[in-house]
Amino acid sequence: MNQIRLFVTAGQRECAKALDLLSNRFEDDGYPISTMEIDEDTDIWEVSLYAEADQRDHLAGSVSACLEPLFSPPRLEIEELPDIDWVAHSLEGLQPVRAGRFVVHGSHDRHNLKTGELAIEIDAGRAFGTGHHGTTEGCLEMIDVLAKRRSYRRILDLGTGSGVLAIAAAKITASSILATDIDPVAVTVAAENARKNQCAGRIELKTAAGFHADIFARSGPFDLIVANILARPLMALAPGLSRNLAQGGDVILSGILAEQRMRVLAAYKAQALYHRQTLWRDGWVTLHLSR
C-alpha cells in the first residue's frame, strides 16, 4: 500500500518543538517521525509523519490538533509517496561516516578505507543505524572515548537497530556484549551485520522489550549500557537501566533532541546517575552518565 507524508514547514526551532509534540503523541503508535533541513540559508525545515495512505483522513485531523499549540492554524501539507522501500532508497549512495576511530561504510566503499580505521560495514536495510544520523555518530564517538579510559567486562546495547553500536563495542573492547531490540526484524538485521563484520561470536542478540526479559538478569549487571532510542522511552527506562548497571558503570544515551536534554538528565539524576559529558550533533545530543 502507498504511504503518505504529513508535514509542516517552519524554522529549525519550531520544527524541533513540533517533532517533540508529534513524538509525544504518536511515537507509541509506531508512526515514523523525522525532521529535515530544506534550506540552511533561509532556515527552512520540515517535520514529517509517515503513514499508510488509507489513514489520511484520520491522521490529518489528529496531527493538526497535536500541532495547534505551536502553529495556529497548523499549516499541514500531505504528500503521496511512491510504493518503494524508503529506508533503502534514502541510504543508497551514502558516503562513509567517520566517528572517532570508527568508519561506517557500505559494501561499495570497502576500497576507500584507510589504514588504522576500525571499519564497520552496514548496508542500507530495514533497521536504524548507519552512522549517518547525529545520534549514531555521537554514540560511536562516545564509545571510542570511554573505551580509551577503561576496560568493560559486560556491555548492553539497548535498542540495537542495525547492530552498529554493538559491533563497534565488539571491535574496540574484549567485553561480553548483549544487544537487544523490541523489533524482531531489527534483531535479524543486526545478526546479519554482526556476521558480516566478523563479530557474531562476540554479540548475543535477543528480542526484548524494556528490561522485563530474563536475559538482563542472566547477563548483567552491565559495566556499560548504550541506548540510542528516543527521549520519552529513555526517561521511562531510567529505573530499569539503573537497576541493571554495575556499580561504577557508565551509560551512553542518545536519540535526544537538544531541548530535551535537561529532562532526560533529570530523570537519570533521580536514579543517582550523573552527567559527565555531552556531545552535540545536528540538533541532537549524546550523553555520558555514571554513578
Automatic annotation (TrEMBL):
Per UniProt, the keywords (alphabetical) are:
Cytoplasm, Methyltransferase, Ribonucleoprotein, Ribosomal protein, S-adenosyl-L-methionine, Transferase
- Tell me a Gene Ontology molecular-function term this record carries: protein methyltransferase activity
- Its EC number(s): 2.1.1.-
The family database entries (InterPro entries) matched by this protein are listed as: Ribosomal_L11_MeTrfase_PrmA (IPR050078), Ribosomal_PrmA_MeTrfase (IPR004498), SAM-dependent_MTases_sf (IPR029063)
Q: Which reactions appear under catalytic activity for this entry?
A: L-lysyl-[protein] + 3 S-adenosyl-L-methionine = N(6),N(6),N(6)-trimethyl-L-lysyl-[protein] + 3 S-adenosyl-L-homocysteine + 3 H(+)
Q: Which domain of life is it from?
A: Bacteria
Location of the protein in the cell: Cytoplasm
A GO BP entry is: methylation
> Its family?
Belongs to the methyltransferase superfamily. PrmA family.
Protein name as catalogued: Ribosomal protein L11 methyltransferase
